[in-house]
Every structure is written in structure tokens, then in C-alpha cells.
Amino acid sequence: MLPVTWETIRLFLHVLAASVWVGGQITLAGLVPGLGKLSPDAPRALARRFNVVAWPAFGVLVGTGIWNVAALHVSWNSDQGTTLVVKLAVVAFSGVTAFVHSRTTSRALLAVFGALTALSALGALFLGIVLAS
Hints:
133 residues; mainly alpha; 4 helices; elongated
């Protein structure tokens, strides 16, 4: 059996948190339209429950992301460093748009900021794969 190291644990926690953050948003995007037919309050209630899991996952993503950067000793003046800076900006954008999405009451803004959050989360996931390869 291969050894379990701190690097393995760090990567596991980062991928787990990304699965919750990104996968949860994709799942909600599929569920929310039908929930409104069950009850007008159902989408909001589901989103509040998701936030209980999603925001801690985002915190784990940020924490393990910092841990990843510290462990990898990235050269900021390299292609890897440039890609990392872009990823960090996309992650920040995802967090900000998610926060705005969670605070707005306008249906139009909910849709816009929900889409921006999901797209930026997918972008951050993609850039994480690029960095790992």
C-alpha cells in the first residue's frame, strides 16, 4: 500500500472541499427550478441549508490552498506563478459573487450572481487541475 502523507491529506481536503463548493452549486442549479413548484420558500430554505456546508467548505479551500502554496514553493515569476495568481483571483471572485448572491433578494440578481459564482467556481477548479498537471 502507498503511504499516506501530509501532502495526501492536504490534497484530499482540498479536493473534498472543492467537491462540496462546486458540486453543490451544480446540484442546486438543477434542483432550484423545480423546488419553486413545491413551495415558493423551498429554494431559499435549501440555499440557506447549503450555505451551512458551502461556506465552511470554501474556508477549507482557502486554508488548504494557502497550505498548498506554502508547501509547493511556487516561483511567482513563472508560468506556474502566473496561473496561480489567476486562480487566486478567480477564487476570490467566486467567494465575492457567492456572498452577494446570498444577500440579494432580486430574482434577476440572484440569477446573475448565481451564474457568476458557478462559472467562477468551475474556472477555479479547472485552473487547479492545470496547476496540478
